[in-house]
Model the fold of this input.
Amino acid sequence: MISPFAILGGAALGAGLVVAYRGLAPGRPDVGDVISRMDANRLENLQPVRTTAPAGGLEKLGAALLRSAGEGTLRLPRQELELIGRSPTRHVGIKVALGLYGLVLPALLVSAASAAGYPMPFPVPALAGLALGVLFWFVPDIHVRQQAVEARADFRHAIKTYLRLVQLERAADAAPTQALKRAAEVGEGWVFVKIRDAITRAELEGISPWEGLRRLSEELDVPELGAPADIISIAGEEGAAVGETLGAQARSLSGALVTAAKAKANSASEKMVMPVSALVVIMTIYVGYPALTRIMSA
Done:
């Protein structure tokens, strides 16, 4: 007689193969999205922050769950997703896939144990599956927040460079709007792509570029970008000379980044104290125990 765990394990394996195939297969582009991109003006400058895979099974699964449950119910880390360039549908799809994997993983292990001649009671894999399913559901959120912390650090380093570039453009008698645009065009990397997108979107919406930068800083929770936007807005609205102020802001940000790097290095060094101390004690015992034994037996 075939074990029900073996049947469940085979069904989970088949479902996993189907999900993997749908995720690797290229998806068709959305017609409405293509038309909206063609209808806008100068959107060739709005480049994506980071290249993402085409819509597949995970994104379709996430989109279906978002439509039924709603983003407010799922409590997605929207700022972090926007910062690392991952779509909410793909994030939800990853959460569902990992949750299902955690749910069926104990059943697969129990099926393998039963086939090897070590049966287990049914409540054990059921409870373990529920616990792992809940745990794996929150793993993508934790990973996204960790990636967002690193991305914000990269953003701050790029903003320091951007401030210097804007200061040089202002020193060359460039207008505030031109200084912001030219400095963004000179820089490379995903942070400068974000800044260029924000400035271009501000132009399309008919607002000032520093207002677009201020909005971007609020969306991504990066206040270091809002400060130069405020400084440039003073130059654009009141005609004030802000070159020295931009330089002081860049130096202040550079000092803060250095302090944060030192604190991170000190924290890493403190974490290594216990392992290194334990290693020294073990080596001392390993080397000194034979000599001490000979001395005591003499």
Q: What stands out?
A: The radius of gyration is 28 Å. Residues 39-54 have pLDDT under 50 and may be disordered. The CA atoms of residues 169 and 178 lie 8 Å apart. The chain has two domains: 4-148, 152-271.
